[in-house]
Amino acid sequence: MTTPLRLGIAGLGTVGVGVVKIVQTHAALLEQRAGRPIVISAVSARSKSKNRDVDLSDYAWEDDPVALAKRDDVDVYIELMGGHEGAAKDSLEAAIAAGKDVVTANKALLAIHGQALAEAAEEKGHVIRFEAAVAGGIPVVKALTEGLAGNEIKRVMGVMNGSCNYILTRMEDAGLSYDAVFDEANQLGYLEADPELDVGGIDAAHKLALLSSIAFGTQVDFDAVELEGIGSVTIDDIRQAADMGYKIKLLGVAQMTGRGLEQRMSPCLVPNSSPLGQLQGGTNMVVLEADAVGQIVLRGPGAGEGPTASAVMGDVMDIARGFRLSTFGQPAKTLRKARAARAAVPAPYYLRMRLLDKPGALSKIAAILGDAGISIDRMRQYEHADTAAPVLIVTHKTTRTALDEALAQFETTNVMTGTPVAIRIEAV
Amino acid sequence: MTTPLRLGIAGLGTVGVGVVKIVQTHAALLEQRAGRPIVISAVSARSKSKNRDVDLSDYAWEDDPVALAKRDDVDVYIELMGGHEGAAKDSLEAAIAAGKDVVTANKALLAIHGQALAEAAEEKGHVIRFEAAVAGGIPVVKALTEGLAGNEIKRVMGVMNGSCNYILTRMEDAGLSYDAVFDEANQLGYLEADPELDVGGIDAAHKLALLSSIAFGTQVDFDAVELEGIGSVTIDDIRQAADMGYKIKLLGVAQMTGRGLEQRMSPCLVPNSSPLGQLQGGTNMVVLEADAVGQIVLRGPGAGEGPTASAVMGDVMDIARGFRLSTFGQPAKTLRKARAARAAVPAPYYLRMRLLDKPGALSKIAAILGDAGISIDRMRQYEHADTAAPVLIVTHKTTRTALDEALAQFETTNVMTGTPVAIRIEAV
């Protein structure tokens, strides 16, 4: 076991540079822990001349990541370019074909092509590891697939997009509108080049789809994630949810139900006092619920050079130590295709609406809810200066289907202005 | 890899029965994940006739755990008896000598004899795994030795004794004295047969010593843990700490300093609003700080049938999957002997004292602190009905040595009644 493990790193952005720094500064520590040296053979990136604040002169340079992936002096191909098509996919496929192990931080690629890639790798007896793709520095893939391997997983939940959590907590703290904080976050460089990946929940949904697969032994199915971004969350929602004892979070939830696998990534209310409710700023949190262990909460940085590089190196060290876990925790060919269950699990909902100052307005709304079988837990009507009163309702548990019927009925009344807002309250 | 992995389980208390239940109820799931069946060959416990609410008829019975450990049909010896001498130690040594892998939940045994046992196992090419020995169901050994394997660990902290945390939070919630809550906890069966293991901090210190070893690559050294239990924490401390924005926790802290390895298990103040400060009841929490990843917080059940059995099974599954990590994350022979540094890291302190109603009383105290080089961050004097005023002081960072000198000086004044209380404030 004193043969060095030789890495080829494609992508020298923040994370790639972070990995190079760890390999350079902790060479002795890594060798002691792995029982063998960890070395970098070659690197690849778009621009060779860019100053990256790290010495790359000892490593071979490849302009083409596919060429890097095939090199004879590379044992582990580390893909840190991102993107679910193009160079990332081509090079990863080339690495698998060439019989390399793969470590990647690419959530989009695996959420969309993970099943095919894992099958291809496993046919060759090689592994794809992706700890860095989910919740940054938090070793959640390891906790789920290994630490909790004796459990039947019941539910996985998480705040897994730091930018969205930053926006939501900043709106509340500063009393600013979504648009104002969005612009602020964009200027601070907190958002992806395509901000919809963040605020539309897509990035977080990629992560959820990967967690679902390892939690439930199912083929990764990103298209089945019910997806709703944070763009429609208003400062009024945040304030009035707070008034009811809740925070609004972009929350991912995956659970196996009698009707199939439910995967949701959407704004949800969680209690103020819960660990998820108390999560501020860019930090990530994942909650794992399983039959034997109960509830485990993991909290840590969800992005950034050090945390993401730490996750990449955790995978590299596993490979160096001879641990060869299947990509999704069990052989890819044994993963089931799950039926997608949409909103299968009933939940209480928070409803916000504006009712006109008309006699009987509230009773019309209450009657519609009652007819739909939805009972009211709490209700508040707020003072108002104009002709419409803000009304908040917290329902008891109901299905989304029943709720949607009631919401449609609301439109047929003439007691409401604007469109009512409905946000699920997740029990945590 | 379709050869079954055959377990021998010694100790059929809560945890042992939990492991049997998981193996029985999740046979198919475990086989799918491990790629091979997990089966129980034989079990051992003190009483064969005791009703354990689980069917043991398919397994061979051994009265003697040493005989169990040596059986030809056992690949992994699971030691769940407890105790750092006697049957637990003898049988574990027998298992190692017979060339078995070992999984144990025995923190005392490993904290005291871990180095010798690990060296013996590794000489034979076998592993000892102990996830269940630290923080119950939280996969913290795995997170530290594997997930964070690319990091230099800076500090490890934790609330790792649920009974102590229950007592401290119950004292605050109910406004009860330590003695009253101790009795209550004892009657509820929350405490060990020897309660000093819990409230004296010994059990938690065993766990801390194990975490230190895997965090810093040092030989486990339980004797070097600075140990102070919760018996001297009063309801006044808890109330007045709360008034200053803090909670009192039995906190374990391990960090490598310029002067050596500091390991402390003692009551500490942590901010109300920190994850540690918000931890209620019997839940455990471990905080890992490392150079690349920053801070990771893990929270979960620290004890009980399901959680502890979950941790045991995590280790069993690693072995079943062919992952053979050294006991302490690197070969035992490469672990350094660390110099023990006592109270090497300066910290702010909370001081509580009662000063007599004499002119100049407070100035005498302030002068002693000043002469010792200790500056005052905040000070409060409370209303009082008798002749002595409760005074709280929060100092700026100071060494414990300087503080102890000042405390000794206090005794030479004649302005104080009783002995002052000093509790470290840990930055979290």
Overview of this structure, please?
Chains A, B: Belongs to the homoserine dehydrogenase family. 2 copies of one chain form a homodimer. With 428 residues, chain A is an alpha/beta fold. Chain A has 3 domains: 5-133, NAD(P)-binding Rossmann-like Domain (Rossmann fold), CATH 3.40.50.720; 140-301, Dihydrodipicolinate Reductase, domain 2, CATH 3.30.360.10; 349-425, Alpha-Beta Plaits (2-Layer Sandwich), CATH 3.30.70.260. In chain A, 36% of the residues lie in helices and 25% in strands. Chain A contains 14 helices and 16 strands. Chain A has helices at residues 14-25, 27-34, 65-70, 87-97, 107-123, 140-147, 162-174, 178-187, 196-199, 202-216, 235-243, 305-320, 361-371, 400-412; strands at residues 5-10, 38-44, 60-62, 76-79, 101-104, 128-129, 153-159, 226-227, 246-257, 260-271, 283-290, 294-301, 349-356, 376-381, 388-395, 416-425. In chain A, strands 7, 8, 9, 10, 11, 12, 13, 14, 15 and 16 form a 10-stranded mixed beta sheet that branches. A 6-stranded parallel beta sheet of chain A has the order 3-2-1-4-5-6, with helices on both faces. In chain A, helix 5 (107-123) links the parallel strand 5 (101-104) and strand 6 (128-129). In chain A, helix 1 crosses helix 12 (305-320) and helix 5 (107-123) packs parallel to helix 10. Chain A is elongated and about 80 Å long. The model of chain A has no long low-confidence stretch (mean pLDDT 95). Chains A and B meet through helix 2, helix 6, strand 12 and helix 12 of A and helix 2, helix 6, strand 12 and helix 12 of B. Strand 12 (294-301) of chain A pairs antiparallel with strand 12 of chain B.
